[in-house]
């Protein structure tokens, strides 16, 4: 059986979790606390870089969320989460890579603020402006389709959605087209199943603050 090592708060972990649910696959979900368990020999043997997610399929392991998504799609192609037409495929890949390479690094101050860490006002404003550039680009790529590059949910929707849907809570607004897209994907059972609970979010914030306090005391 497939095994997914994950952390519910992690954007990266949530991506393959949603894909596995959308595919209707049987899998074992193994939650990592990231309180030091990622440095235990058993986990280091799976991922020497000490982070989640990790997918284990019998004697084969896959690290890095985008690689895991591709593996799941290639091995279990139905229902498809990846369009075949060249322009649609390019749209999906652009959304994935812009999310990872442009959006997430830019909104780090917003993430810090969300989990209760100090952030400088000017950095917050800069992060919002950079996020707005990405959202405008995403609106163009979405076009008149309900999902990125397709009439059906794609890997791009999973990658972008898990990374940006908290932004309106931080003062970054969606236009009507992206808001409709957001409403569409958040109504999916896979999205609701993987949505972090307030309890999980609070516990994560507490762990982060504790770890930072320990680091500052050293």
Automatic annotation (TrEMBL):
InterPro entries: Glutathione-S-Trfase_C-like, Glutathione-S-Trfase_C_sf, Glutathione_S-Trfase, Glutathione_S-Trfase_N, GST_C, Thioredoxin-like_sf
Signal peptide range: none
Keywords: Transferase
Residue span(s) of domain GST N-terminal: 1-80
Entries under Gene3D superfamilies matching the protein: 1.20.1050.10, Glutaredoxin
Keyword Transferase attached: yes
Enzyme Commission number, as recorded: 2.5.1.18
Boundaries of every GST C-terminal domain copy: 85-212
Alphabetical list of Pfam families matching this protein: GST_C, GST_N_3
PANTHER family referenced in this protein's UniProt entry, alphabetically: GLUTATHIONE S-TRANSFERASE RHO
Protein name: glutathione transferase
Taxonomic placement: Bacteria, Bacillati, Cyanobacteriota, Cyanophyceae, Nostocales
